[in-house]
Amino acid sequence: MIQMQEIMVSEEQLTQIKSKELYILKEFDRVCRENGLKYSLIYGTLLGAVRHKGFIPWDDDVDVCMLREDYEKFRRIAQDKLPNELFYQSHCTDKEYFQLFDKIRLNGTVFAEKYYAKYHMHQGIYIDIFPCDKIPNSPIKKKVQLIAYQFFRVGLMSRYLDSSQRKGFKKWCARILGVVYSVFSMDYLYAKAEKIAKMYNRDDTKELFIFPDTITCNSTIDYYSMQTISTIKFEDACFYCMGNYEHYLHNQYGDYMELPPVDERIPKHELINLYY
C-alpha cells in the first residue's frame, strides 16, 4: 500500500481546529451540566488549562474523562441531546470505529489521521471522551487485570491501525501481531477488552484508571477526586476538572509547569487530510 502523505498544519489551521474543538467541548459541557453528569478535563487539555489558561499552543486536540457510570449515561443520551451538527462516535454508532474510548465529531469537517484513513467512518474534527474504571486494591489483581486488558487491546490495535503507515521495526511488529491475532475478530477483541476494563467497577476501591490510553498504572486517579469536581478556566469558558488535579498532573508529567524542549512543541496527530 502507498505511504500516505502527511500534511503540515499551519498556525492558522491549528487556530481553526481549536475553535471547532472548543465549540464541541462547550456542547459536551452543556449536556453534562443539564443531565447531572460529571467529567474532568484530562491529559494535555487539563495541563493547558493550568499552565496556559487554555489550549497548549501547539496542541491539536481536547481530552475529557468520565467515571464509567456517567460515561455510559452520556453514551445513551448523547445523540438526542447534542445539536444536529455533532455526531457521537462509538463502536455502536460507527461500526468501523474500534477505539476503546468515544469521540464527538463535527459534521462537515475532516480531520483524517493516516492510521484510520482506510476506514469508512466519520473522520471529522473531534474531542476524545475517556472512561475511568476502578482498579482493585490488591497489587496482584491489579497486575492481572492490566495484563489481561493489554492482551486484548494490543491485539485489537494491531488489527485496527493501518500497519502499512508505520515504518521500520514498528511496521514489522504490527504486521506480525496482526497475523497472530487474526484468529480473533475485532468485535471479539473489543468486547473482551472493554469487559476486563469494567470488571471492578462495583467494588469499593479507591483508584481509577484510564485503560484505553495507557499501558502502565503510573497515572492512576484517586476516586475521590472525581467525586469532588470543581471548575477551571479554559480559553473563554470554565469547565469541570477533578479535585486535587495538581497531584494527577505531577504523576503524569512531573514538573508540569516547565515547557518541553522546542523540538517537542508540535501537534501530535499525523494528518493526511484536513477540512474545516
Strands, helices and their partners?
Layout: H1 11-34, E1 40-41, H2 43-52, E2 63-67, H3 68-81, E3 86-89, E4 102-106, E5 110-113, E6 126-135, H4 139-160, H5 168-180, H6 186-197, E7 207-209, E8 221-222, E9 230-234, E10 237-241, H7 245-253, E11 271-275
Parallel strand pairs: 2-6
Antiparallel strand pairs: 1-2, 3-4, 4-6, 5-11, 6-7, 7-8, 9-10
Helix pairs in contact: 4-5, 4-6
SS-derived structural category: alpha+beta
Largest sheet: 7 strands, mixed
Low-confidence region ranges: none
Q: What does the overall shape look like? A: globular
Number of helices: 7
Q: Could you say how many structural domains there are in total?
A: 1
Structural notes for this entry:
The protein is an alpha+beta fold. The protein has one domain (11-275). The chain has seven helices and eleven strands. It has helices spanning 11-34, 43-52, 68-81, 139-160, 168-180, 186-197, 245-253, and strands at residues 40-41, 63-67, 86-89, 102-106, 110-113, 126-135, 207-209, 221-222, 230-234, 237-241, 271-275. Strands 1, 2, 3, 4, 6, 7 and 8 form a seven-stranded mixed β-sheet that branches. Strands 5-11 form a two-stranded antiparallel sheet. The chain is globular, with a radius of gyration of 18 Å. The chain starts with 10 loop residues before the first helix and ends with a strand. The mean pLDDT is 93.
